[in-house]
Amino acid sequence: MGERVVRYFFGRLNLIGSFTDKRSFVLRGLESRKVFEYRGYNWGFFEINEIKNEMGDFIHGFLVKYKLKSEEEVAVPNKHKLTLESIANRVIAKSRFFLHVETSVIAYHPVGNQIVSGVFCERFARIFEKNHEGFFVNAEIQIIEEQYKIFEAIKRFSSIRKVSISLNPSNPSNIDRWRKIDERLKRLGALKYHEEYEGNPDVRSLDVEKDEEVISKISMAEDGYGRADVSGAIEGESKTISTRDNPITAVGPRDDEPADSVLGKLSQTLKKILRRFK
């Protein structure tokens, strides 16, 4: 029998808030004991701890979905009867994560249909915000994509009719290919930015590949600071491609293996991602 594995996704925890010590700020968002209730289930962070290794400082833990009270059928052997017993705080699913403090890169694994990737990102952000009660904090996880994949896809279009780009500023660093865009957002004090281009009917195609500013913005979205969608025609059919179409993933051990061992087996992919932002 082969090794039992789970698939990890990689994203970036984008934070808007006032802080001077990022590590303390992040720990507060993860270590506080607030819970988020949604449709009869509670969600929270559990088993939070820190791991230091050659890549830097990580915060490890689980995003847990649990039921406050549930009834389970149990056997009563001495009577050969079946009965229902009330069980408190039964865990429905848990999703392990590793957060790299310096870059805010996060690795996490979804759990079947209980904690799909999008749900993990949304619940994680809402709990993090709730743990900072009384302070303005905006949190969002954006998926990190395979580098340059969207540009490979753009080359397949015979014509491009529409480009939509949504961005949020980096926290705190940026890189050359989109530094000017990021610095402008920060100077403006922008929380989010959105723009949309629609092609002129009298022109065959939007000339996306020759516009350095649009390319920079799409690159920024690809690196986990937003989203870009491109629509047009490929081989005569209408298509839309997105920076969310090619997420970086890796397989790792299941949750019964120690956290530092799991992190070690994800290190090759993590190092590749971290090199992008050096």
What would you note in describing this structure?
The chain is α+β, with helices and mostly antiparallel strands and 278 residues long. The chain folds into two domains: 169 residues, no CATH class; 94 residues, no CATH class. Helices cover 26% and strands 41% of the residues. The chain has six helices and twelve strands. Strands 1, 2, 3, 4, 5, 6, 7 and 12 form an eight-stranded antiparallel beta sheet that branches. Strands 9-8-10-11 form a four-stranded antiparallel beta sheet. α1 packs across α2. The longest helix has 18 residues. The protein is globular, with a radius of gyration of 22 Å. The relative contact order is 0.20.
Give the helix proportion (percent range). Answer: 25-40%
Task: Tell me the fraction of residues in β-strands, as a range.
Answer: 35-45%
Largest sheet: 8 strands, antiparallel
The span between the termini is 40 Å
Overall average residue pLDDT:
90
Instruction: State the low-pLDDT regions, or none.
Output: none
SSE topology string: EHEEEEEHEHEHEHEEEH
Instruction: Tell me the number of structural domains.
Output: 2
Number of strands: 12
Given the structure, what is the number of helices?
A: 6
Radius of gyration from the alpha-carbon trace, in angstroms: 22 Å
Global outline: globular
Q: Could you say which structural class the secondary elements and strand pairing correspond to?
A: alpha+beta
